[in-house]
């Protein structure tokens, strides 16, 4: 088996282990399908009987208006939502702040609001599918009690609760972020009709326009005030109708205005910054109080259930919000707190199976029960001086319930430790074996012998891994309960272990030194930085500010390469200027080297200046995210002319940068394509062009894609024809193929990028060329290939962060996925978002392949070096990170920092694994 084939198998094995690890580290949350009833409602406190009839509905009908991405300061600003602010000021409404647990995306937040549960982090991925929710919610409780529910808005609700709503009108494209107004107008249109119908008990409205504006233009867009005014007018309309209802019924109506999550300062959501996790909850009813206290979003389900006289959802782990329970009498409030506290205590007993006799929350709960009992006894005896008992009981109930809620929240997601162990075993073993392959000569082939005892050992190992954790460790694992599928997974894991042990043994037996020749100091610097970066994953701060490491490492590498490259010109300038003969001086070879020296200095000067500029283009990370950057300046309406000139010049530079990779005809088509891109951005309103007005026309995009098809046809079809029909291959086919791919990718990336970010493609290509030319001058063939590959991978990481990306899910630019689309298409949107998010790493990969293709005759083992370097660059840091994430699984920031980073790294590895597998099968097989 060839070494290149082994390396491809190693990456596939690592991906398999990574999938098992993620299955254990990001499991589905523990949510029972049990439905609550009043069987567990407390009937007495010791010998004192409780009056169950006091737990009853307080309102005739309820309206929940959910404004997607409704962050706290949108309501706090004076100019926004004047009607709601007036109600709050006059005491006709009240407001509390809700804390939203990550991930701050819609589907998990709806689950938290309606059920009172903590969604699992993996729900951030399931948000795209929004499958039916089996967990108990106040929606099912109201529906089972005969109350009709109606819904209008985000179709996520109807997918999660398909059989709950009596009438519904869902937005079929909730992920289509270019729709700012039409979907919301449809909801308001249905609202007008439903307010006249008396046959429903609860109406839910989910408005998406504010969230879409945030994704496209950010929270400081000029469209935000207008959208908030529109939402305020809808709320005003509902309040007016509520006044009419309240005059006709003995029970008033209840109206809530809140958000499912907030919005990041740079737009989008999904992370854990303060604007994303803090939302207002405005209640408009007969009696409530405003408070500056911060409550959890999961507290809403239990509180609303009490207000409506419903059984609290069985899976709810939230506390009650006292400010919303002012309508309840003292005895009724204590009864509700007792009910919820007993529920939480029973859940804690079942889940943790511990003795709580000496726990503070248990003692407080018992003390509250005693005070509650005494309060009831004294009241029934006619003693009215019992307010102190009520206050103390209420305080103890609330404090103990809050502590129990926090304990349940921490223990809500169960790690599959056996899956984590298997995943770590596979990934670490693959990493060690891949490192040791350095000691095996490239021409060496390995033979894996499958004797009968090997097969018998594998079967025994499969049985042990399947039954060992439960029988001897008392550890539950879903892999062990999957039946046949679980057996296959364990069998594959055993085979991977067997293969990697064989590789380790063969590498140890190999007596020769590593086949890669002695390294230059630049190589040692790059390797040392890669190791340090891997170790830095053990710090949450380093993960949040990872871009700082790559900026520092990258610029230091550029400086080191520049200084090393200058050393070859040592003494040349002095020799030239000391020669008296001007003719000789100008004809001397040394003078040509002086010109080359000037060229190197100028290129690196431009390189450093360009990187200083693009580093300030987009703030990223966490610490400095709120600091204004050049991108913020460019998108201001008063700077649209400057942005237009900058974007146009950028597109012209793109033609120049791509021109070196393709022929004249492709260059002409490239120029036409960039004109179409500029025209599309003009009619979209992002840049300006004289006499061109805003339009929804997609003609420019149609012509753009036709242009790309022509570029592909001109470059790809002749190669395919020669390969398929003539059975021959020209030496330049590889460079033509990759060069055309670079041009096409740059054009697509320029279309998807925000206009001010299109310059990144040009500077990325320029950086790769400058560094590659210096490395060619410094290194001999084998280390040169190693360093070219590693430096390009570094450059790709730098440009990933230059674009404004980070390890927070909120930095993903969803708007790029909808360029030119009029409806949601999962495949196209996913492809566009991937290309836009990973444009830097993907472009550097293409340029690197182009350079390697040009130098393919200089390194006999070029393909193997490429595969080995990329595989180690991907798997070594990731395996270290998996160990760190396991160690920090109980860390405070596990769901806000470590888990999002894990998703990024897993997707990045999966993406590049596919690319390198294709390259390994095609390129390496040809070279072999």
What report would you give on this structure?
The chain is mainly alpha-helical. 61% of the residues lie in helices and 5% in strands. The strands form 2 sheets. An 8-stranded mixed sheet has the order 6-5-7-3-8-9-4-10, with helices on both faces. A two-stranded antiparallel sheet has the order 1-2. β5, α7 and β6 form a beta-alpha-beta unit. It is globular. The model has no long low-confidence stretch (mean pLDDT 84).
Q: How would you summarize the topology of this molecule?
A:
Layout (H helix, E strand, L loop, with lengths): L2 H23 L18 E2 L2 E2 L11 E7 L4 H5 L5 H9 L3 E6 L6 H10 L7 H4 L11 H7 L4 E6 L1 H5 L6 E5 L10 H13 L7 E6 L1 H9 L6 H25 L4 E6 L15 H4 E7 L9 E3 L2 H10 L21 H23 L7 H21 L6 H24 L6 H20 L15 H21 L11 H26 L11 H15 L4 H5 L1 H21 L5 H6 L4 H6 L1 H27 L14 H5 L5 H20 L4 H20 L15 H28 L6 H20 L6 H20 L2 H22 L23 H12 L1 H16 L7 H26 L6 H34 L1
Parallel strand pairs: 3-7, 3-8, 4-10, 5-6, 5-7
Antiparallel strand pairs: 1-2, 4-9, 8-9
In short:
By secondary structure, the chain is mainly alpha-helical.
């Amino acid at each position: 088996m060839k070494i290149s084939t082994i390396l491809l198998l190693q990456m596939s094995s690592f991906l398999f282990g990574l999938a098992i690890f993620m299955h254990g580290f990001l499991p589905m949350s523990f949510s029972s399908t049990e439905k609550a009833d009043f069987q567990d409602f407390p009937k007495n406190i010791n010998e004192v009987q409780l009056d169950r009839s006091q737990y009853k509905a307080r309102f005739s009908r309820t309206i929940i208006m959910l404004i997607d991405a409704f962050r706290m300061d949108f309501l706090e600003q004076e100019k926004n939502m004047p009607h709601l602010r007036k109600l709050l000021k006059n005491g006709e409404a009240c407001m509390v702040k809700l804390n939203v647990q990550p991930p701050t995306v819609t589907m998990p937040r709806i689950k938290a609001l309606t059920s009172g549960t903590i969604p699992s982090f993996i729900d951030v991925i399931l948000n795209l599918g929004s499958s039916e929710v089996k967990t108990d919610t106040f929606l099912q409780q109201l529906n089972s009690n005969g109350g009709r529910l109606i819904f209008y808005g985000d179709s996520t609700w109807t997918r999660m609760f398909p059989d709950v709503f009596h009438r519904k009108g869902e937005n079929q494209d909730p992920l289509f972020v270019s729709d700012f107004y039409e979907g919301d107008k449809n909801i308001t249109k249905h609202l007008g009709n439903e307010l006249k119908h008396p046959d429903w008990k609860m109406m839910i409205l989910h408005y998406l326009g504010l969230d879409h504006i945030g994704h496209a233009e950010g929270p400081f867009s000029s469209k935000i005030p207008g959208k908030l005014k529109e939402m305020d007018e809808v709320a005003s309309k509902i309040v007016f109708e509520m006044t009419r209802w309240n005059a006709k019924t003995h029970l008033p109506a209840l109206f809530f205005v809140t958000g499912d999550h907030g919005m990041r300062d740079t737009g989008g959501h999904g992370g854990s910054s303060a604007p994303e996790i803090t939302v207002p909850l405005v209640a408009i009813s007969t009696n409530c109080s405003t408070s500056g206290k911060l409550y959890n979003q999961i507290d809403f389900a239990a509180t609303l259930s009490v207000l409506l006289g419903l059984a609290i959802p069985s899976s709810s782990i939230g506390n009650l919000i006292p400010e919303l329970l002012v309508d309840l009498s003292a005895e009724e409030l204590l009864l509700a707190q007792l009910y919820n506290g007993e529920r939480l205590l029973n859940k804690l007993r079942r889940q943790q199976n511990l003795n709580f006799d000496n726990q503070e929350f248990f003692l407080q709960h018992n003390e509250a029960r005693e005070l509650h009992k005494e309060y009831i006894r004294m009241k029934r005896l006619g003693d009215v001086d019992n307010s102190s008992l009520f206050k103390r009981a209420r305080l103890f109930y609330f404090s103990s319930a809050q502590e129990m809620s926090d304990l349940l929240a921490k223990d809500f997601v169960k790690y599959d430790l056996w899956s984590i162990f298997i995943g770590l075993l596979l990934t670490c073993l693959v990493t060690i074996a891949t490192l040791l392959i350095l000691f095996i000569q490239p021409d060496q082939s390995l033979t894996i012998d499958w004797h009968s005892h090997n097969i018998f050992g594998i079967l025994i190992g499969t049985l042990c891994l399947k039954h060992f954790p439960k029988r001897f460790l008392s550890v539950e694992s879903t892999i062990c309960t999957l039946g046949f599928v679980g057996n296959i997974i364990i069998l594959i894991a055993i085979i991977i272990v067997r293969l990697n042990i064989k590789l380790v043994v063969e590498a140890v037996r190999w007596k020769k030194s590593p086949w890669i020749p002695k390294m230059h100091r630049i190589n040692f610097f790059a390797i040392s930085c890669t190791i340090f970066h891997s170790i830095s994953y053990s710090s949450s701060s380093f993960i949040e500010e990872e871009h700082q490491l790559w900026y520092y490492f990258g610029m230091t590498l550029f400086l080191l390469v520049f200084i090393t490259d200058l050393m070859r010109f040592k003494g040349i300038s002095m020799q030239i200027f000391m020669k008296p003969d001007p003719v000789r001086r100008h004809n001397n070879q040394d003078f040509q080297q002086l010109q080359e020296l000037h060229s190197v200095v100028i290129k690196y000067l431009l390189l450093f200046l360009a990187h200083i500029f693009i580093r300030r283009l987009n703030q990223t990370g966490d610490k400095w995210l709120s600091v204004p950057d050049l991108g913020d300046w460019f998108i201001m309406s008063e700077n649209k002319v400057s942005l237009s000139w900058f974007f146009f010049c950028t597109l012209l530079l793109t033609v120049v940068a791509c021109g070196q990779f393709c022929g004249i005809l492709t260059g002409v088509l490239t120029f036409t394509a960039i004109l179409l891109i500029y025209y599309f951005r003009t009619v979209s309103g992002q840049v300006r062009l004289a006499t061109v007005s805003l339009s929804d026309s997609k003609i420019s995009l149609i012509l753009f894609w036709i242009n790309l098809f022509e570029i592909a046809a001109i470059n790809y079809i002749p190669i395919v024809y020669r390969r398929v029909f003539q059975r021959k291959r020209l030496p330049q086919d590889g460079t033509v193929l990759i060069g055309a791919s670079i041009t096409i990718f740059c054009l697509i990336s320029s279309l998807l990028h925000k206009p001010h970010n299109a310059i990144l493609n040009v500077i990325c290509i320029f950086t790769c060329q400058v560094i590659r030319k210096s490395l060619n001058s410094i290194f001999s063939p084998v280390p040169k290939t190693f360093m070219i590959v590693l430096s390009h991978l570094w450059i790709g990481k730098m440009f990933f962060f230059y674009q404004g990306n980070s390890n927070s899910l909120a930095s993903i630019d969803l708007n790029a996925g909808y360029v030119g689309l009029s409806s949601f298409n999962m495949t196209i949107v996913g492809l566009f978002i991937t290309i836009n998010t990973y444009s830097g790493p993907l472009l550097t990969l293409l340029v690197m392949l182009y350079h390697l293709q040009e130098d393919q005759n200089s390194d006999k083992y070029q393909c193997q070096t490429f595969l080995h370097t990329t595989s180690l660059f991907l798997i070594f840091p990731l395996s270290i990170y998996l160990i760190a994430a396991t160690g920090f699984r109980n860390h405070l920031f596990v769901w806000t920092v470590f888990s999002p980073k894990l998703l990024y790294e897993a997707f990045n590895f999966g993406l590049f694994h596919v690319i390198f597998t294709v390259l390994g099968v095609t390129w390496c097989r040809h070279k072999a």
